[in-house]
Every structure is written in C-alpha cells, then in structure tokens.
C-alpha cells in the first residue's frame, strides 16, 4: 500500500502536517499525503448488498482496519480545523464515508478548542443509496474514536500536559478529556445500548479509552474497546528504576504536574458504582494492538510466563490475568511482521494496512494484570461512593 509521509510521535501518534509537493504552473493539484486514496487501505471494501448474506464486520481484521481509519479521521479533523478546511475541502470525511458512517459529534478540549475525539453513527441513508438495506451484522451503531498527541503548535501543550499526567500518575482521570469522553460514551450507551457502541483510541487516545472502558465496566456497562499502541504504565516506573537520585528527581517533577483529580461526570450513567462479581467483570475484554518495536506500548507484551501465538483469524487466545482462574481478560494482538523503526512502529497506519501480519498472544501479562486489577479488587466490595455514612 502507499506509504504516508514520515511523522514525529510522542506518547501518541500523528503529528505535524507534511508539506505538499510544489507544482508547476498549469498542472493539476497534487493529492495531499493524508488523502484516503493516497495513504488509506488498498483492498478494504465498502459495505454492499453482499453484507446482507455475509457481513465483513464479522472479520476481526476488517473491524480493526475500519476502527483505525475512524481514529485517523479524528487526527485529520483537528488538522482540518487548524488549516481552516471546511466539510467540502477537508481531508477527514474521506476516512469515514466509504464505510457508510456519518459524523454526528466532535469532542472538543475546552482549554484550546482542539478536537480530540469524534462520534460516528451508521448512516442509513448513505447505505440505502448503495442498496445496503440493513446495517451489517457486527457493525456498531456508533463509534467513539480518540486521537493521540499532535505535535502542532495549536494543540501540543494540552496534548503533552495529558501525556505527562499519565506518566506522573498512571491515570488520566483529572483531564477534561477523560470527563468529556466518559460523558459522551454514557450518552451513546443511553441512546444505542452498550452492545451497539464501540470505543477506539490510538496511543494517548488509547489510554483514555482504556480508562473510560474500565470505569464503565465497574458499573456493569461493557463496551467493545479497541486500543492501538496504548501507552504503558511501565514507562513511568522505568524512570524511577534508574536509581534513588533519579527516583527522587522524578517525584519532584511529578509534584509540579497536574493533579490526577476525578472530573465531573454527566448524570446519564455516571452515578453510583454497583458491586460486581468476578464473572460479571470478566465480560469486558478490551482489544489491544501492540508493536514490540514501539517502546511506548511494548510492555503490554511482557509476559510473566511464556507467550503462545495463535491464529488471529480464529479469535481464540488472549491475555490471562495472573493469580486468577485462567480467564481471558484482554485480547492482545502483536504485529509479527511490521515496522521496526520506532516512529513507524508507534504509528497508526500499520493497523489499517491490509497486509499486516498479526498474532494473538496468549500469556500471563504482568502489566495488563496490573491495569485491570482494580476491576477485580473493587468487584468484591461496594465502592466507597455507594456506602452511606
């Protein structure tokens, strides 16, 4: 497939806008490097009447590629905003329209007015025009996609503030973006039902998606969640591991960083957490997509035991929570043959590539166990918020 221009990354993905090729007078405009037909997937078919018989959405590779395209659309929505491109000239719409979805809402950071997320809904009218009479089986009614860090001046400082918040506290709950994402997904669940909603994010956006998904799971609300290059909490811990002086310095830096806080949650579904049993909690199984050459997310594939690779097409395998009864708590997809250089290994493009070779790792992951441990520890007793004095 065509390659996107090289980008710079931090605890996230896409960043600065590439320069377009210069044209000679009278020549046709050159396509933008982020145009869907330039850097998008090559052999990814749009929904058609055949989906009435056999839905492409039941293929895990197809779903992965489409969700990745929706996240790319969020990056481009912000770039379109910065460069003052409208709906007709913007790059972003080309990344969701082929799949018969429409943009119904953008999530905007109140601190700098940047777009960090978007809600896409199945576009019945557009589908009907191509004789797709019903929504394909497995296709969500609505998708909430979250971008990562953009190293462009209008948004870089707010993005990096959340990056540092995660490194300092291993939590994103104090961010306005966490609150905005949780409120949006609550409203989507209320409108469409949790079984018809999908949540996806890349890098820093994957960090928000994971934390929001955990928050919902504690309330017994299970939303399908796709996490591309999620930031690893071990990155912060590794700074402290350099020695006592480094650890002391890190604590001083962390004290000056934004508080982890809790934010304000909309009353739609954000009320009292109920006590969950262990079997209930294990109904929520997030999908994680990791490249071992990306040091930001590779710790998710650091097993406590021996990793066993299985065929991604079977949907079998997954990550087992250590110290429990062997139940799969996450699906961990590892890029077996993909980009080796860090910037490309952390990029989003690899996940919509139609020639990607993935394996499902089956292992006892120490990091995933720690990330999801709060679900298990809170499932045996009521939340403090639910106990009346």
Write the topology of this structure.
Elements: H1 36-39, H2 60-82, E1 101-108, E2 115-122, H3 124-129, E3 142-146, H4 153-169, H5 176-192, E4 197-202, H6 204-218, E5 224-228, H7 234-240, H8 244-255, H9 278-281, E6 287-290, E7 308-311, E8 319-320, E9 328-337, H10 342-345, E10 357-364, H11 366-378
Parallel strand pairs: 3-4, 4-5, 5-6, 6-9, 8-10
Antiparallel strand pairs: 1-2, 2-3, 7-10, 8-9, 9-10
- Following the backbone from N to C, one meets helices and strands in this order, namely HHEEHEHHEHEHHHEEEEHEH
Report the span from N to C terminus.
61 Å
Which outline best applies?
A: globular
Number of DSSP strand runs = 10
> What is the helix content?
25-40%
Low-pLDDT regions: 1-12, 14-18, 267-273, 305-315, 320-325, 378-389
Radius of gyration: 21 Å
Description:
With 389 residues, this protein is α/β, with parallel strands linked by helices. It has a domain at 36-292. Helices cover 31% and strands 15% of the residues. The protein has 11 helices and 10 strands. The chain has helices at residues 36-39, 60-82, 124-129, 153-169, 176-192, 204-218, 234-240, 244-255, 278-281, 342-345, 366-378, and strands at 101-108, 115-122, 142-146, 197-202, 224-228, 287-290, 308-311, 319-320, 328-337, 357-364. Strands 1, 2, 3, 4, 5, 6, 7, 8, 9 and 10 form a 10-stranded mixed sheet that branches. Strand 4 (197-202), helix 6 (204-218) and strand 5 form a beta-alpha-beta unit. Helix 5 crosses helix 6. The longest helix is centred in the N-terminal third of the chain and has 23 residues, at 60-82.
């Amino acid at each position: 497939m065509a390659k996107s221009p090289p980008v710079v990354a931090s605890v996230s993905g896409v960043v600065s806008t590439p320069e377009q090729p210069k044209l000679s007078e009278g020549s046709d405009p050159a396509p933008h490097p982020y145009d869907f037909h330039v850097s998008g997937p090559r052999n990814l078919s749009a929904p058609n009447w055949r989906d009435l018989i056999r839905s492409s959405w039941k293929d895990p590779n197809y779903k992965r590629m489409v969700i990745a395209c929706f996240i790319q659309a969020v990056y481009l929505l912000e770039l379109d905003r910065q460069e003052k491109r409208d709906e007709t000239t913007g790059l972003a719409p080309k990344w969701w329209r082929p799949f018969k979805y429409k943009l119904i809402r953008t999530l905007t950071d109140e601190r700098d007015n940047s777009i960090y997320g978007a809600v896409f809904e199945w576009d019945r009218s557009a589908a009907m025009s191509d004789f797709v009479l019903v929504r394909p089986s497995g296709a969500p009614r609505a998708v909430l996609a979250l971008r990562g860090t953009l190293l462009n001046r209008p948004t870089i400082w707010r993005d990096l503030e959340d990056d540092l918040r995660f490194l300092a506290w291993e939590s994103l709950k104090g961010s306005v973006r966490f609150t905005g994402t949780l409120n949006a997904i609550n409203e989507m669940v209320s409108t469409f039902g949790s079984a018809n909603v999908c949540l996806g994010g890349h890098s820093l956006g994957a960090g928000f998606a994971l934390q929001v998904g955990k928050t919902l799971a504690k309330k017994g609300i299970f939303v399908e969640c796709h996490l591309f290059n999620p930031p690893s909490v071990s990155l912060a811990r590794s700074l402290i591991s350099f020695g006592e002086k480094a650890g002391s310095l890190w604590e001083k830096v962390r004290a000056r960083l934004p508080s982890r806080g809790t934010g304000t949650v909309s009353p739609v579904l954000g009320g009292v957490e109920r006590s969950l049993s262990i079997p209930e909690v294990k109904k929520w199984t997030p999908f994680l997509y990791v490249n071992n050459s990306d040091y930001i997310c590779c710790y998710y594939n650091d097993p406590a035991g021996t990793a066993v690779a299985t065929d991604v097409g079977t949907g079998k395998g997954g990550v087992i929570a250590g110290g429990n009864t062997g139940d799969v708590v996450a699906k961990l997809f590892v890029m077996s043959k993909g980009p080796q250089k860090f910037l490309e290994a952390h990029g989003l493009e690899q996940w919509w590539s139609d020639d990607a070779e993935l394996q499902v790792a089956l292992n006892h992951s120490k990091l995933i166990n720690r990330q999801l441990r709060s679900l298990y520890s809170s499932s045996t007793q009521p939340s403090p918020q639910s106990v009346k004095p």
